[in-house]
Amino acid sequence: TVTADQLGALLNTCSVLIILVLGAILTARSWISIGSVAAMVMYYSVLNQIMNQAAQILKEVPAFKNLLERIEVLYSDEESTQGAVLTEFQSLEVQHLSFAYGEKTVLKNVSFSIHKGDTVCICGENGSGKSTLLKLLCGILKGYQGNVKVNGKELTEINLVEWRKLLAYAPQDPYMFGGSVRDNIRLGCLEAPEEEIDRIVKQLKMEDFVEHNSEGLSGGERQKVSIARALLKNTPVLLLDEPHSYLDRENLQWLEAYMKQSSKTIVYISHNEPMAAVAQQRVKI
Question: Dmax of the chain from CA atoms?
């Protein structure tokens, strides 16, 4: 198989040979001097270097674009690191919580409480604000009405950076960065050893595509990446947005068993009855 680099080297050699042959013919007829031939070879070499550098820059454009996307996602709208620092999770209390996108209210007067080690299922009709609720608990959305208290402290008075170190959030449709599936899973915890990534990959049966490029994954594969990231972070609080949506029965059974035996505080959205039945508490919104 001829690679692009090999083809380029062949064309470069042929071009130089053509210049030399034509130069020899023109020199023999006294139409140009030997110095002119040497100059043509030198000019071609410089032009070839410029073209190669331009091609390399074009190749790097997707990488530059990906880098800008990472910067935009991670550093836009910088948050304050002021507020109370939480070192552990004990309780979460939601009181008369309401939230609106503009003039459209999606959450209205929601109240419930969660304690350390609880498994809680958030239920409700489509569009009732279930995903919005999880984002509010993470501190991603601002401007709510009512109260969200963690360990008795209002969320607006808590250092959100430190709060998020205690929780892992698995959205239904995760953002996928460029690179392999393994690279995307590793974002859950950059310091995690490869053995831990391999263990989670095996649990979620991702071996067949973990080394594939992250582009073009199916809905089920993307959801597994989202769950794998959250598990790799290994936090005391786990938030899952409809984890059952694209999973096959085998993975669902594994996830149900995991939640039953886990000591983590798990809050998840589900309209799947077997999955909802795992919860110790159901919150209808």
Answer: 96
What band does 67 get if pLDDT is binned at 50, 70 and 90?
A: low
DSSP 31: S
43 has pLDDT over 70: no
Cα-based distances in Å from 191 to 43, 70, 186, 188, 219: 50, 19, 8, 9, 27
Q: Is the pLDDT of residue 49 over 80?
A: no
Task: Report CA dihedral (225, 231, 235, 241) to the nearest 10 degrees.
Answer: 50
> Model pTM?
0.71
| Distance from C-alpha of 164 to C-alpha of 83, rounded to nearest angstrom | 13
Q: Per-residue pLDDT tens for 220-270?
A: 899 999 999 999 999 999 999 999 888 888 888 999 999 999 999 999 999
Which positions ≥6 away from 253 have C-beta within 8 Å?
none
